[in-house]
Amino acid sequence: MGSQKLHSPLLLLACVLCGCLAAQGCLEKERTALLQLRDSFYHPRPANLSEWPTWVGEDCCQWAGASCQDEAPRRVVFVSIAFARKPELGGMVVNGSLFAALEELQELRLSNNQISRWIEPKGMLGLKKLTSVNLEENLLTEESVSWLFNLPSLTAVYLSSNRLKSSSTLKAFCGLKDLSSLHLSFNTMEGTIDPCVSNMRSLQVLFLQGNRLTGEIPSLSKLSSLRTLNLGQNRLSGVFYFSSLANLANLTGVSLVDNDKLEVETEHPAWAPSFQLEGGLLLSGCSLNRRSGRRIPSFLSTQKNMFLLALSRTSIQGTIPAWMLDNVANTLVLDGNSLSGPFPQLEGNRTRGLSLLDLSKNKIHGPMPQNMKSMLPEL
Ligand SMILES: *[C@@H]1O[C@H](CO)[C@@H](O)[C@H](O)[C@H]1NC(C)=O
Ligand SMILES: *[C@@H]1O[C@H](CO)[C@@H](O)[C@H](O)[C@H]1NC(C)=O
Ligand SMILES: *[C@@H]1O[C@H](CO)[C@@H](O)[C@H](O)[C@H]1NC(C)=O
Ligand SMILES: *[C@@H]1O[C@H](CO)[C@@H](O)[C@H](O)[C@H]1NC(C)=O
């Protein structure tokens, strides 16, 4: 009897609590802001319901493409509206004021929407907690992204595949001291890489691939957090000394591919790497070790587990050392060089995971090893 009496108030209390929590699901002003945002990206609204987020219900924290912090008040911290704009509709204009209510937003993804312009960008400046912005695959120019430079909380910016035309954009990002990840690949940025990049101490990832950058690569020796560097497919020149990266202990991947005026020097001055390039090294289409006998980079013998090594068209000479086949885990491309001598013996009884090996257009002679099939079973 007594227990039943106890149960009902408990049940009642539970219901009240549930009700409260549901009501606290999301703030009305944030819910309204999200719906306005959706409607501006999906305008005109697609007839087919499956092509846009229906976003029904009071609790916007439950909607696909939005999420909230766990503790009350459950403010919206993440918004993703990607692939909303149909290509045939052409460029779209984003109204920054629509974001003003989302004051606690931490991550915003608006990639693949053909955004060409921002109006009322002041609305974005209230987003003081914003750390990550993904605007890849849009039509943005320098003027349309200038609001980003006023958000010092940013740690990750994705702006690859837009219409940024000048390296001044890169320079402007130097002002964001906490930036750890900067993606500006596949734009048409012209000009040099400003030396201010040398002081971006928080940088872990720098992607500038596929632009029209010219001039020398500034010193990266103080970027102690750097993990991945991609400056490939530009028009960089001068001499890049690999020794300048010696102390970047967290470095795992470097690409400088297809900068045909860039000389990469790995032998001088003498140095020893503190890193392991487990992602890989891509120097294809650069001029490698012109001042040191076109040698195969000797530091690679210390890199024990490279996923990928690409040294095509670098003019290197000499015989392929046996360690090279041991150190590369997946892909080794050495075509279009002056490598000579026999193919190295595959010693020991250890099989290797190499799946792609390209040695074409060299001067290698003699028979291939008989045990190739058993030593390189994945090839
Ligand atoms: C709506 O879109 C989905 C996914 O694109 C598609 O599978 C479906 O056939 C479409 N329905 C109509 C009525 O066009
Ligand atoms: C941008 O959005 C705000 C808030 O909804 C609205 O008041 C303003 O008129 C919009 N601006 C333009 C140019 O549409
Ligand atoms: C290198 O990476 C480790 C592990 O992620 C991290 O703890 C350390 O702080 C990093 N070092 C630098 C200098 O960023
Ligand atoms: C490979 O060699 C090691 C020692 O040289 C030996 O212990 C191991 O059994 C060998 N493995 C195979 C598969 O023959």
TrEMBL record:
The primary location reported for this protein is membrane
Q: Spell out the subcellular localization from the entry.
A: Cell membrane
Give start and end of each Leucine-rich repeat-containing N-terminal plant-type domain. 28-68
Q: What Gene3D superfamilies does the annotation carry? A: Ribonuclease Inhibitor
InterPro entries, alphabetized: Leu-rich_rpt, Leu-rich_rpt_4, LRR_dom_sf, LRR_N_plant-typ, RLP_Defense_Trigger
Q: Where is the signal peptide?
A: 1-22
Keywords tagged on the record: Cell membrane, Glycoprotein, Leucine-rich repeat, Membrane, Repeat, Signal, Transmembrane, Transmembrane helix
Q: How does it sit in the membrane?
A: Single-pass type I membrane protein
Q: Which family does it belong to?
A: Belongs to the RLP family.
Stated name of the protein: Leucine-rich repeat-containing N-terminal plant-type domain-containing protein
Q: Which organism is it from?
A: Colocasia esculenta (Wild taro)
